């Protein structure tokens, strides 16, 4: 009898957890939750960019209520698994949905996987139109690179892009960190120029 009660109790708990999870995914996020998700996304992107196994991939990272979805292409199954593991290590992640497609570069399958990502879609449309890279994509890419770099990560640097010209503002902890931030921005694909007059070095 005790075993039956325990079984029924376990079932009830499992069903309750499932219902709570479904409700959490369907419930609109508050402003605080949205900020948390954005932070998780940036953290995952930084980890992917900093790791040699995944830094060359076009991976779209989307986070909702702590659930991270990875889309895009990977060279090998091992690289795909590495991307999932890196994403799972980011603070605040409760689940990783690894939807990366394993396909070698320059294949049709890989191209389809890459253009399924947000950045891939932007690049494809810009290439077809003969225009430059989208400003929003550049801003996101620069922010991710700054966060991934050991010398400048954690600094309060604001990034804004207009007409493919990046403006950096805020405070860098040292002259070296300031120079590195400018270097990273200039090296980003599609950037036509960098304005850093408002990026200052913190005083001792």
UniProtKB/TrEMBL annotation:
Q: Which UniProt keywords apply?
A: Signal
Keyword ATP-binding tagged: no
Asked if Nucleotide-binding is a keyword of the record, the answer is no
Recorded superkingdom: Bacteria
- The signal peptide here is 1-24
Q: Name one Pfam family in it.
A: BON
Q: Transmembrane ranges?
A: none
According to the entry, every stretch annotated as the BON domain falls at 36-104, 134-203
**Which InterPro entries has this protein been placed in?**
BON_dom, Lipoprotein_DolP, Transpt-assoc_nodulatn_dom_bac
PROSITE patterns under this entry?
BON
List the PANTHER family. BON DOMAIN-CONTAINING PROTEIN
Name of the protein in its database record:
BON domain-containing protein
The beginning of the lineage is: Bacteria, Pseudomonadati, Pseudomonadota, Gammaproteobacteria, Lysobacterales
């Amino acid at each position: 009898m005790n075993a039956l009660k325990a079984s029924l109790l376990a079932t009830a708990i499992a069903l309750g957890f499932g219902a709570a999870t479904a409700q959490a995914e369907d419930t609109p996020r508050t402003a605080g939750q949205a900020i948390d998700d954005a932070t998780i996304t940036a953290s995952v992107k930084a980890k992917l960019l900093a790791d040699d196994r995944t830094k060359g991939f076009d991976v779209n990272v989307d986070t909702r209520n702590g659930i991270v979805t990875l889309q895009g292409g990977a060279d090998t199954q091992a690289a795909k698994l590495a991307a999932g593991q890196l994403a799972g290590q980011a603070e605040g992640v409760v689940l990783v949905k690894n939807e990366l497609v394993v396909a070698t570069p320059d294949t049709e399958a890989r191209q389809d996987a890459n253009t399924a990502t947000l950045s891939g879609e932007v690049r494809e449309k810009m290439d077809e139109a003969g225009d430059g890279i989208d400003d929003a994509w550049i801003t996101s890419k620069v922010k991710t690179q700054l966060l991934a770099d050991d010398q400048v990560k954690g600094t309060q640097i604001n990034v804004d892009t207009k007409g493919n010209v990046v403006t950096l503002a805020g405070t860098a902890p040292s002259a070296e960190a300031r120079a590195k931030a400018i270097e990273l921005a200039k090296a980003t694909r599609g950037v036509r120029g960098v304005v850093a007059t408002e990026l200052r070095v913190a005083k001792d």
